Amino acid sequence: MYDFRYLLVQVAMELPTLAVLITGGVLAASSRGRLSEAVRRLLLAGLAVLLVLTLFSTAWSVALPWVAAEGPARFGALSLVVGVIHALLLPAGFGLLIAAALAGRRSGPAPGPTGPDAPAAWDASPADAYQPPVDAYQPPADPYGPSADPYRPPTVTR
Question: pTM value?
Fold first, then answer.
């Protein structure tokens, strides 16, 4: 019974990763109209490599108790092989995903305001900025001249 529970736990721990990779593969395969062919192939290849690695790691985790029972020499040799395979496939899978994310990008001008309607400088207000109308209410001029404090309430003298 112990072996079955161990197997169940090891497989259950990999199920979320497997679900994400399989869902990503289905979405990538069905997105022919939105993704270019090169991007789609890179994405599918990266997901496939990561899926194979996940299945391989799951099989190694399940077989671990039986391999360890065969002796330390055999366990050490197989652990080295599994480690090398893991060290090669993981960066390859992520590299393919990164390549898919960057494939098909065109180098162009840096993002920012360009074109005929763009402001001339960063401090210039855009054409659609709020400007009060010319006939908007203006407070009456101070009869005694401009005050030193523009926020001082007006004084009423009689």
Answer: 0.63
Q: Note whether 43 and 28 are within 8 A (CB).
A: yes
Residue-wise over 43-53: b if at least 16 C-beta within 10 A, else e?
bbbbbebbbeb
Is residue 81 pLDDT above 90, yes or no?
yes
Helix (H) or strand (E) holding 100: helix 72-102
Residue 145 Cα distances to 141, 142, 150, 154, angstroms: 8, 5, 11, 12
Tell me the DSSP string of 26-75. HHHHT-TTTS-HHHHHHHHHHHHHHHHHHHHHHHHHHHHHHHHHT-HHHH
Q: How far apart are CA 132 and CA 19, in angstroms?
A: 58
